[in-house]
Amino acid sequence: MGTATVKWIGGKQFVGIDSTCHSVVLSTPDEGIGIKPSELLLIAVASCSAVDVVEILTKKRMPLDFMEISASGEQDQDPPWTFRKIKLHFRLAGKNLTEKAAAQAIELSEEKYCSVAATVRATAEITTHFEVLDPIQFG
């Protein structure tokens, strides 16, 4: 079972701490020192998928030299500003990486392994796009 703690540190600032004592600073946009909680959800979807994609491609003997995922979301105009669409754009590079392998790894993550995506999918449509880059730039 996952656990986390959020501590208020003053004003509109908080620290989130996971079960292994890693932390992240959160705040409202006007505080300007931490991540917006709603954008932390986008980071969670992208990073959950990132872990899966790295593991899947490593098992396929196609290790990555580079990966970056841009996440964007469309929210309702009124409170509670529910996310309705989340878009993930993967940029990947690896010496032996093929477009087919990248597509399969991303699909497996989104459809089978990513717990965050599985949870969010109940209210938000998640779409993914990717591009395989020349690994020479990152080697």
Attribute tags:
three-stranded mixed β-sheet, 3 helices, 2 domains, GMP Synthetase, Chain A, domain 3, alpha+beta, N-terminal domain of TfIIb, three-stranded antiparallel β-sheet, 139 residues, single chain, 6 strands
Protein architecture, described:
The chain has 139 residues and is an alpha+beta fold. It has 2 domains: 1-35, N-terminal domain of TfIIb (Single Sheet), CATH 2.20.25; 37-137, GMP Synthetase, Chain A, domain 3 (2-Layer Sandwich). It is 32% helix and 34% strand. It has helices at residues 37-59, 99-113, 115-120; strands spanning 4-10, 13-18, 23-27, 66-75, 83-93, 125-132. It has a 3-stranded antiparallel beta sheet with strand order 1-2-3, with no helix packed on it. The chain has a 3-stranded mixed beta sheet with strand order 4-5-6, with helices on one face. Strand 2 and strand 3 (23-27) form a beta hairpin. The longest helix is centred in the middle third of the chain and has 23 residues, at 37-59. The mean pLDDT is 95.
